[in-house]
Amino acid sequence: MTQPRTHETTDTASAAALALGDDALVLSHRLGEWAGHAPVLEEEVALANIALDLLGQARVLLSMVGDEDELAYLREERAFRNVQLVEQPNGDFARTIARQLYFSAYQQFLYAQLAERESEFTPLAVKAAKEVAYHQDHARQWTLRLGDGTQESHTRMQRAVDALWRYTGELFQPVPGLDLNPQELRASWTASVTDTLREATLTVPEGPQLGAWSAGAGRQGVHTEPFGRMLAEMQHLHRSHPGASW
Q1: What is the Cα–Cα distance from 34 to 122, expressed in whole angstroms?
Q2: Alpha helices (runs of H) in 167-224, residue ranges in sequence order
Q3: Which one of 154, 177, 214, 239 has the lowest number of neighbouring Cβ atoms within 10 Å?
C-alpha cells in the first residue's frame, strides 16, 4: 500500500489550505460527537448541520493539497496543522458554545477578508462566509441565553469562556500563504466577541490573548493531550480496513 505523505510542504498556498482545512475537519468531528447527546432534538440537528458545513469546507481545502481521505485518515498527530482551540473536548454544552463562539467569529472575519482578495481561496471564502454567518449567529444566541439565563447557566457559560480564552491567541498568528491583515482580524474578532459576552452579562477574560501564558502551537503540529484520543477514534475505521470500498 502506498505510504501516506507527511505533507511538510514548502508551497505556502498548500500549507495555508492544510491549516484551514484541518481547523474545519477537527471541529466538524468534535461537533459530530454530539449526535445522540445534544440537550434537545432541535439542537442536535443544528450542530449536525454546522458540522456538515465545516466538513464541506475541509474537503475543498484538503483537496487543494492532495487526497482528502489520505490527509484525514492516514496522517499522524504531528502532521495536523489545526489550531488547538478546535480540538478541545466538547465538555458540557456551555463549553461547546464558547468554543463555537470564538471560532465562528474568527472564521467570519477570516473569510470576509479572503473573499475580497483574488486568490485560490476566493471561491470557497465567498460560499463559506454565508455558512459561517449562521454558525456565528447560532453561537451568539446560545451565549446570550446561557449567560443571561439562570444562575447555573451563567456560571457554566462564564467558566467555559474563561477556560477556552487562552486558546484564542493562536487564531491571530500569521498563516503563510494567506493574504490577510492579522491586526485587523484580531481587532474585529475582539470587538465582536466582547460585545456578545457583555450583552450576555458575562465578564470578558482579562489579560492579553498572546503571551507567555497562552496556548498555541497547533499550527506547528504540537497538540493537546485530548487530540490524540480524538484522532484515534476518527481514523479507526479507515485504518482498520485499508483499501476497503463501501
Answers
A1: 31
A2: 182-199
A3: 239
